[in-house]
Amino acid sequence: MSTLLLTPPATEPVTLADVHMHLRLSHTHEDGLLTTLIKAARQQVEQKTGRALIAQKWRLYLDKLPQDRCIRLPHAPLASLVELSLYDPSGMQHVIGAGQILTDPASNPPRVKLQGPVPFALREMMGVEVDYIAGYGSLPEEVPESLRTAVLMLVAFWYERRSHVEDGLLTGLIPHGFDAALSPYKVLRL
User: Fold this and answer.
1) d(C-alpha 65, C-alpha 172), whole Å
2) Are the beta carbons of 158 and 165 closer than 8 angstroms?
3) Considering only CA atoms, which of 14, 48, 41 is closest in space to residue 157?
4) How does pLDDT run across 8-31, given as a tens digit for each residue?
5) 2-7 vs 56-62, strand pairing mode
């Protein structure tokens, strides 16, 4: 299984104004740094939880269908299924119609299930492609407040430790209790 981000989020879950208010900053001369920190913090929250905060389009590649034909998607929440395609051994794409697919966006992780048998063999590698939109919506206010707060918490933590940021040491540098705050949102990894 591998995934590819096809369309990144068009905005971030928190704005520069949100960060300025949270940090009590009245100047704008570090907005470049803050913008970088917002994006890195969002990515960290998404990586830790398995959730897309703002709508983004992903492609999941599988070598074969699971035996129960139920595909578990690695990013939640599932906003919509764009397309499910199967590839035969010659590489020909077969787009599966919406009437042949069940979606379960409420499960953890979200699932899509192909109804009925597949009438042909799949190619050995990357025989299944699933394109889908994951995220709470396209606007910051559609993201749960606790996840937006986690992004702000991380931005503030990194901003106060900017020497680590300048040295490129963002990875692994998180505030105490950050993981616990995200635990209710974590998507089960299978």
Assistant:
1) 35
2) yes
3) 41
4) 999 999 999 999 999 998 998 889
5) antiparallel
